[in-house]
């Protein structure tokens, strides 16, 4: 919006929770040692959706919850770690990567809470007959 002199007037900007969750989920997935996001129930429903051909439903924000207050956000991330990963190292890396990604959009991150919900165990080979 511009005034009569042609200068822009400031308005109110806001970012939806889902946008922050998508940014955060994408960043968390890039961290070595993170194999999936979300708790057991979320991953179960994702497998059901995948089985009926709805592969992309819920994937973008699964495992992430953002609390947005103006330009400040607090983010909760639930991860599944790879076997052999060090919990503290992966959690710190997720916090750093998510913070970097979200602040790149001009938001202030007040905290990134990481919960390790599961660890991916190596698959045992199925004996062939």
Explain the layout of strands and helices.
Blueprint: H1 17-29, E1 34-37, H2 40-51, E2 64-69, E3 72-82, H3 87-103, E4 108-120
Parallel strand pairs: 3-4
Antiparallel strand pairs: 1-3, 2-3
Helix pairs in contact: 1-3
Condensed summary:
With 129 residues, this protein is an alpha+beta fold.
What class would the helix/strand composition place it in? alpha+beta
Put simply, the count of helices is 3
- The total count of strands amounts to 4
Radius of gyration: 19 Å
| Proportion in β-strands | 25-35%
Order of helices and strands: HEHEEHE
The pLDDT mean sits at: 83
Largest sheet: 4 strands, mixed
Query: Which regions contain 5 or more consecutive residues with pLDDT less than 50?
Result: none
Describe this structure in words.
The chain has 129 residues and is of the alpha+beta class. The protein is 33% helix and 26% strand. The protein has helices at 17-29, 40-51, 87-103; strands spanning 34-37, 64-69, 72-82, 108-120. Strands 1, 2, 3 and 4 form a 4-stranded mixed β-sheet that branches. Helix 1 crosses helix 3. The radius of gyration is 19 Å and the shape is elongated. The termini are far apart.
């Amino acid at each position: 919006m511009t005034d009569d002199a042609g200068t822009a007037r400031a308005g109110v900007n806001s970012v939806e929770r889902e946008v922050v969750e998508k940014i955060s989920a994408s960043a968390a997935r890039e961290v070595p040692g993170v194999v999936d996001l979300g708790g057991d129930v979320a991953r179960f429903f994702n497998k059901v959706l995948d089985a009926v051909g709805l592969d992309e439903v819920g994937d973008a924000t699964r495992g992430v919850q953002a609390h947005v207050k103006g330009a400040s956000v607090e983010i909760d991330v639930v991860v599944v770690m790879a076997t052999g990963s060090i919990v503290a190292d992966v959690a710190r890396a997720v916090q750093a990567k998510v913070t970097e990604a979200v602040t790149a959009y001009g938001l202030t991150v007040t905290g990134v809470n990481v919960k390790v919900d599961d660890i991916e165990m190596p698959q045992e080979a199925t004996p062939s007959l």
